[in-house]
Amino acid sequence: MADQTIEHEKHESAAESLIEKITEKFHGSDSSSSDSDDEGDIKSAAAAVKAKVYRLFGREKPVHKILGGGKPADIFLWKDKKVSAGVLGVATANWVLFELLEYHLLTLVCHILILGLAIVFLWSNASTFINKCPPKIPNVIIPEDIVLAVASSLRVEINRALAALRDIASGKDLKKFLAVIAGLWVLSVLGACFNFLTLFYIGFVLLLSVPVIYDKYEDQIDAFGEKAEAELKKQYAVFNVKVLSKIPRGPLKAKKFL
């Protein structure tokens, strides 16, 4: 394990030194523009060295790109702290309202509609007595293209999930199968301890905290992940030798060719 840590540190130091050379090339004098071939070699060497640096789950793109980019990724990574705090505040208020205070969704919707209709009704009738214009109620119509786009996106994601489940159940990848079974078992245990709303809220809070922590301390987390992955591979090799290899398997039937 110590050798892997030393090797990882050597790769990082080599990558940093090469990146420093590149920056010196770019910020050098104008005469250095003629050495484009040398700069290309340094860039390729730096890319090769950085490719050897371990990244968690084989990550090649930045965290912002993995989260989809755009506004959702900015919210998850707290690029706009006011919006992220507002989203977290709304989620927390909903959890407190429905879980701690045991308020029901249908009751809340009915109360909001009653309050809104009463305010608009009183305002419309009182406008004649106070000499003010009645409220302008907008005519809300949901566009058909938005509904079709949402339905199409859901269809694509559902088909992708079904294809992934079929691929896992086909028995092609034993590691993926065991990982999915372990994940479902963990979810079943969590589901027995928490209800769906609490579990959803915990997942949402983790989504707003884990990516930003990883983005801030990715080098330290990647180094720890490399050690953990090496240990998991070692344990899986032992499990494969002691358990999986001893499972009896029937003889493969010869395929019939017409």
UniProtKB/TrEMBL annotation:
Annotated TM spans: 103-123, 177-210
Record keyword Signal present: no
Ranges of residues in domain Reticulon: 72-255
Subcellular location: Endoplasmic reticulum membrane
Broad class of where this protein is predominantly found: endoplasmic reticulum
InterPro entries, per database record: Reticulon, Reticulon-like
A cellular-component GO term for this protein: endoplasmic reticulum membrane
Pfam families xref list: Reticulon (PF02453)
Membrane topology: Multi-pass membrane protein
Keywords: Endoplasmic reticulum, Membrane, Transmembrane, Transmembrane helix
UniProt-listed PANTHER family: RETICULON, RETICULON-LIKE PROTEIN
Protein's UniProt name: Reticulon-like protein
Name of the gene encoding the protein in the UniProt record: RTNLB2_1
